[in-house]
Design a protein that fits this description.
Largest sheet: 6 strands, antiparallel, barrel
Strand content: over 45%
Number of helices: 6
Strand order of the largest sheet: 20-21-24-25-23-22
Amino acid sequence: MRSRYRFITVLSVCILLAAPFVFAQTTGNIQGTITDADGHPLPGVTVEVSGPSLQGARTVVTSADGSYRFPALIPGNYKVRAALSGFATVEKGAVVSLDATATANLVLRLTQKEEVVVSGEAPLVDTTSTTTGTSYTSSVMAKLPIGTNYAAIVRSNPGVSEDRGETQGRALALTIYGATSVENQYIIDGVNTTNVIKGFQGKAINGTFIQEVEVKTGGYQAEYGRAMGGVINVITKSGGNEFHGDAFVNYDSFGTQANQVICTSGEAPPDSTCKGSGEDSLTGMRISDYKRWDFGADFGGFILKDRIWFFLAYDRINYNDQKVARYVSSAAVPNTTEFPLDEVDNLYSGKLTFNIAQGSTLVATAFSDPTVIEGAGGSDPRQSRVRLISSLDPRTWESRRDIGGLDLGARFNQLFGSYGLVTLQAARHKDRYQLKPSGAGSGIRVDDFSCEGGTHDVPCVEPTSPTTTGGFGSIFGPTVNNFSARNMYRGDFTFYFGNHEAKLGADYQTGRTTAVTFFTGKGEGGYPGGQVVEIHNEYGDPYYSHDFFSPGQGDFTPIDNTVTPKTDDIGWYVQDSWKVTPSLTVNAGVRWDKEDIRDYTGTAVIKTTNEWQPRIGVIWDPRADGTTKLYAFYGRFYYALPTDLNVRAYGAQSSYTTYNHDPVITTPDPTVFGHESPFFQGGAFTEPVDTNIKGIYQDEYTIGVEHLLDPTFSVGLKGTYRNLGSVIEDRCDLDYLAPENNFNSCGIMNPGSGELYESGNFPGCSGLDGSRPSDADGNPLPCNFGTVPAIGNASRIYRGIEVTGRKQFSQSLWAQ
């Protein structure tokens, strides 16, 4: 206990003393050297930076080696002005990108007159970083058809494609350099908006809210963690010393779409629109009609010039007359029958920037993306989980789906001239994916399996597909009915000394998911919980079976099954960017992460420790003028597990199946022939875990070159190699009757680790040696198959060669 308190104390000190983990995510830098005409450094030069994104001008004085630095600048266009008595004043433009450093070197010449010489633009190559990727400004995004989801711009980056990951109907399943779509991290205004339960894009706000999107595809330093693919780093727009605003309206419809694909045979199309009971089900659902209106506005400005700025934005999307239908007709539902699917999206963003004093800034931000889908909400084919409509009865399909949530963040920045800065941030991310019955769908679902000719001695054969009436039925919490929140606290410290830019930071985040699995029918007959009822008469006598969740054995009161597990993540890092010579920079750092996967009681069931992640990069600028860089990078990256594992493998439930002659009452009736006793299942479904479990990680190696042909045209060549080092998987061939398996059919292990569950040295039921044996009454017996095969190592290798060219022709034309 004493060691735990010591650790918490050390962490608290780190957080209170620390800064640029968050700062680097929301700002950029300008640095350079001032020399005379002969190339000698000039100390004591007054350097001023100004621009529309800056609250007032900032001034520094060059050091003994003629260098200067402006850290923590909001992305945008700036002017750098250098003045020294006896020299002509020089001014140069510089473009600051998100989490990047612009180099603006200036030359002062002796003169007898006061004048300003504008010496062009600063080069666009960041010669201090090995990070690969692209930054997309709002002016570029405004001219591209990216729709209402800002993440669509990420597809423009080389090495990005899409996989078959879940999307909740509006996120993008983006794979970056071989990593899956759930291995990226999405940061907006310093807030980790990655989906808590699944790990994909967790916030779908409009691109018009965005100032800049930075796509980090690899090579990023130790301040970035918990991702193995890319980091999508976003900053929303801010106000300014002038009022500005925009308004927009867009319209499209089912009829304006090109190449409508309706699946009737063969494999589902690659866009995954044929969804139903299975991912590629040809008996799935399709959008058959819609009219879509998208309109909104944004407005920004000042409350006090150079002191308090604000920005507000709103976007509403209405899907009018939207309909869904089956792809293939069933006996009960023709594929020409359309069902309503009403949808409204309300997206909004707000930011307040308060310049408290020189170098002290407080930024508060909020953004939200709620969506409501009603009618046949559970049968929306754009979703990852789709309910197939099998009856015309509205009670079986009428439902509502709610997606999205509100994110809040507060960030305090304290700048100490050009010598250091401190940042403290607190934030809360929310996401929601909830399905519930609405209207007629709120009743008890009844499946009729009645057959003819049954007797006590010779039962009749029941139909494989029942006649369905009543309510919507079962709703599974981990996949379609859950809401999550992630609280984040970060603190970082950056300090500059000589040719070093050192950073130290720590952060803590906890993600909690509440998943509710239930049956519809609450309130029917005075019962508080729901159930699914089946009608049977295979033995000649009609009876009802009732499936429901119970408080425990012997209690036949229906309830919902609710689990609320959480995951705690803590990490710290230290790194240094050392400019060894004017043309050579070395970046070195190390990151350490720890993750606790907790069950429904709050007990840590999986602990990943010793997640040490060294990162090192070397950048050489042969001309020392910011126009060329040759670079190499090595780094290890660990992944943070979403809460999906907690919810599925570490909850608890009790359920009953009872039999009687009443369509609503759940109390068992011992007179039902063949079903005299109820069937109970209960307890915690906590999967066993191998000892010494290790986190998921990947190693990356990159080598490349980038050259500026002119101030607006750059070309690059690079090679990337990524190797998956360790994964966490569950194998589900355990004998669930064996006590040593915790009476569970699945276990958590690292493939290739040689530990108990990886090696197969446990009572298993592989299914390869025959079916599970049963006793005379049909009850399952232990498999007695002995051990099962070892899993072996997991492997994923990515090799890539990339050639890029980027050209800014004008303010209206940009090409990549």
